[in-house]
Amino acid sequence: MQAFSYLQRNISDKNYIKLTFIGAFFIVYLALTTLNPYMPPLFGVLMVIAYSVNKREIIWFALLYLLIFEMDRGYYLFSSWLFMFIYIYYVIPFVSNFLDCKRCIAALAAFCAYPAYFLLLNTIDAFFLKDTLSVSLALLFVYMFFETLLALSLE
């Protein structure tokens, strides 16, 4: 009998190795979206993953990813965190009361993430009496289309 039997290796620790590589891929991809503005930053897909998986590690990674996302784009600090909590805990469950299809919920959540986030940013701008954020609608629709397709493939 070992003196420290609680220090035995756990087979489920291999999940963290896989999550580390996936997280590194997302961070590198976020840096690439800064260089090429036509690559979607996977904002809506991240919301769908955080809602559907609902694990603590994924939520912490999503918060880190969103912090880098808003610092890189020049948005208000922690505005994406506020949006994520409102979106994941209030908006998506409200929509899921009316839809039973998980793929439909994921697609709708990814499709509406960008317009809802920019609506939140415009609300914050109006509260502080600042000029509203101008966004290229063509680029926004490209992001929404591709991220909806990615969200459909996730479920």
Detail the topology: elements first, then pairings.
Elements: H1 14-35, H2 43-53, H3 56-73, H4 79-96, H5 102-127, H6 137-154
Report on this structure.
It is a single chain. With 155 residues, the protein is mainly α. The protein has one domain (42-154). The protein has six helices and no strands. It has helices at residues 14-35, 43-53, 56-73, 79-96, 102-127, 137-154. The longest helix has 26 residues, at 102-127. The protein is globular, with a radius of gyration of 18 Å. The chain starts with 13 loop residues before the first helix and ends with a helix.
General form: globular
Number of helices: 6
Strand content: under 5%
Give the class from helix and strand content and strand pairing.
Answer: mainly alpha
Unreliable runs, pLDDT <50, ≥5 residues? none
Q: What's the SSE pattern?
A: HHHHHH
Radius of gyration: 18 Å
Major sheet, described briefly?
none
- N-to-C span: 45 Å
Number of domains as seen in the coordinates: 1
How many strands in all?
0
